[in-house]
């Protein structure tokens, strides 16, 4: 019998046990800088990677970056940089358990770096999958994550086998041949097809549920992770929704019926987006994102206080395009106005000057977005009434457009 190389070995995922990062593991973060990126940008990206690592339970001890046209085929980084990292690891006063790369690496790149440094290596997709696996609580989310994990592993099988072979210890005297790898591939492909079938069932259940909601207008909160979607959901629907200062606190879609001025509509909160989201994850989360795809109005929430919020807006728009959910009425919700004010304005600034600066900021975005935006603080409940009015008007307009002869939903 062929041994399915399970990934406990040297830290690879064992799907059923998931969780690859152990609590408080000390991590080195590594980023490759492409030509067009500024130093500031790469710091922001690594800040995000650090936040992801922290969410997964690891602790950042050091960052390394390298400016390179493109990654090295074999080792991702250049030899010199690897050596520099090795020297850091070997120092007596440092403690390192793992390396986390901000990009997706190939199986053999991971293997080669692990060999060179004798430390576990995770790439960005690994890390995100790890977080998703830990956060998946419903059967549907678990199935979706598991599918994404298998699909991520499939092209990397050979690297993992080679891994076992080179490590030697106990797994068999000779390395696996094509047949063994082929057998494992078949096992994984079978698993993938079972999971896909399972997801189709969830899809059907979701479709039925959505059909039962009839003609209610559907509003969906979308946005980058940690921008305040769930907090806004809570403010608008006055119900307890889980919000947390962590990435991907929400993995499932929550839908609530909300009624303002006798106008009912459905409001949904769902998983957030992030840059370089593993493609398979987007694929397998399609049904969770159906609510977004089928929404009538999108509320695109933006964390105004984040230094790269415009970047994040582009990532969200790109993902929406990928989901075929781009072509809908959108209101941009610039959230965390309170935090923005704290960060952007000096304390001693005259209130009038502050007000003027804010006015200009708002005016310029209103102009750019054709008026379809609002600046709020969900936490401080600033401008919530105005936000509601804008939303309500959009909802009512849609009812009028869709059911011109019906008067029940609006005045
Ligand atoms: N300062 C500030 N923090 C906010 C605001 N809205 C949300 N947050 C915080 O941002 C974090 C992420 O919020 P959450 O609603 O979970 O974001 P989600 O990932 O988009 O659903 C939480 O710690 C919230 O308390 C706001 O208007 N101002
Ligand atoms: Mg959330």
Mean pLDDT: 85
Radius of gyration: 24 Å
What is the CATH topology descriptor of the largest domain? Rossmann fold
CATH class of the largest domain: Alpha Beta
Helical content, roughly?
Answer: 40-55%
CATH architecture descriptor text of the largest domain: 3-Layer(aba) Sandwich
Strand content: 5-15%
Strand order of the largest sheet: 6-7-5-8-9-10
Category from helices, strands and their pairing: alpha/beta
Total strand count, please? 10
The major pleated sheet works out as: 6 strands, mixed
Number of helices: 14
- Please mark out the parts with pLDDT under 50 across 5 or more consecutive residues, or reply none: 1-19, 164-173
| Termini gap | 71 Å
The global form is globular
Q: CATH homologous superfamily of the largest domain - what is it? A: P-loop containing nucleotide triphosphate hydrolases
What report would you give on this structure?
The structure is a single chain. This protein is of the alpha/beta class and 411 residues long. The chain folds into 2 domains: 9-190, GTPase HflX, N-terminal domain (Rossmann fold), CATH 3.40.50.11060; 214-402, P-loop containing nucleotide triphosphate hydrolases (Rossmann fold, 3-Layer(aba) Sandwich). The chain has 14 helices and 10 strands. The strands form 2 sheets. Strands 6-7-5-8-9-10 form a 6-stranded mixed sheet, with helices on both faces. A 4-stranded parallel sheet has the order 2-1-3-4, with helices on both faces. α3 (107-117) links the parallel β3 (98-101) and β4 (120-122). α4 (124-135) runs antiparallel to α5 and α5 (139-153) runs antiparallel to α7 (178-212). Bound molecules: guanosine-5'-diphosphate and magnesium ion (MG). The site of guanosine-5'-diphosphate (GDP) has 21 residues, from α8 and α12.
């Amino acid at each position: 019998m062929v041994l399915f190389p399970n990934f406990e070995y040297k830290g690879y995922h064992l799907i059923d046990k998931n969780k690859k990062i152990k609590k408080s593991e000390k991590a080195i973060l590594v980023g490759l800088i492409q030509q067009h990126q500024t130093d500031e940008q790469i710091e922001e990206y690594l800040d995000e990677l650090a936040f992801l690592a922290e969410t997964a339970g690891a602790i950042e001890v050091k960052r390394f970056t390298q400016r390179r046209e493109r990654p090295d085929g074999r080792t991702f980084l250049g030899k010199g940089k690897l050596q520099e990292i090795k020297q850091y690891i070997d120092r007596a006063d440092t403690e390192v358990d793992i390396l986390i790369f901000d990009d997706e690496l190939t199986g053999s790149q991971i293997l080669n770096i692990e060999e060179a440094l004798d430390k576990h290596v995770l790439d960005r997709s690994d890390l995100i999958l790890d977080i998703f696996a830990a956060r998946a609580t419903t059967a549907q989310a678990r199935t979706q994550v598991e599918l994404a994990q298998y699909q991520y592993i499939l092209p990397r099988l050979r690297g993992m086998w080679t891994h076992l072979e080179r490590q030697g210890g106990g797994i068999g005297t000779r390395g696996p041949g094509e047949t063994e790898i082929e057998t494992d591939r078949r096992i994984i492909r079978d698993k993938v097809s079972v999971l896909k079938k399972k997801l189709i069932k969830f899809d059907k259940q979701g479709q039925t549920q959505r059909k039962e909601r009839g003609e209610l207008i559907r509003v969906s909160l979308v946005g980058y992770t940690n921008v305040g979607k769930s907090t806004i959901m809570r403010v608008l629907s006055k119900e307890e929704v889980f919000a947390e200062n962590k990435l991907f606190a929400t993995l499932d879609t929550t839908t609530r019926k909300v009624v303002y001025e006798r106008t009912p509509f459905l409001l949904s909160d769902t998983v957030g987006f992030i840059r370089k989201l593993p493609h398979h994850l987007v694929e397998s989360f399609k049904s969770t994102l159906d609510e977004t795809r089928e929404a009538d109005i999108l509320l695109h929430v933006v964390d105004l206080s984040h230094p790269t919020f415009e970047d994040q807006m582009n990532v969200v728009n790109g993902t929406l395009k990928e989901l075929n959910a781009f072509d809908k009425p959108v209101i941009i919700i610039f959230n965390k106005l309170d935090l923005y004010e704290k960060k952007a304005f000096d304390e001693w600034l005259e209130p009038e000057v502050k007000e003027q600066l804010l006015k200009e900021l708002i005016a310029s975005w209103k102009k750019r977005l054709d008026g379809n935006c609002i600046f709020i603080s969900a936490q401080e409940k600033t401008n919530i009434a105005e936000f509601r009015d804008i939303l309500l008007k959009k909802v009512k307009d849609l009812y009028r457009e869709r059911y011109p002869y019906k008067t029940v939903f609006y005045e």
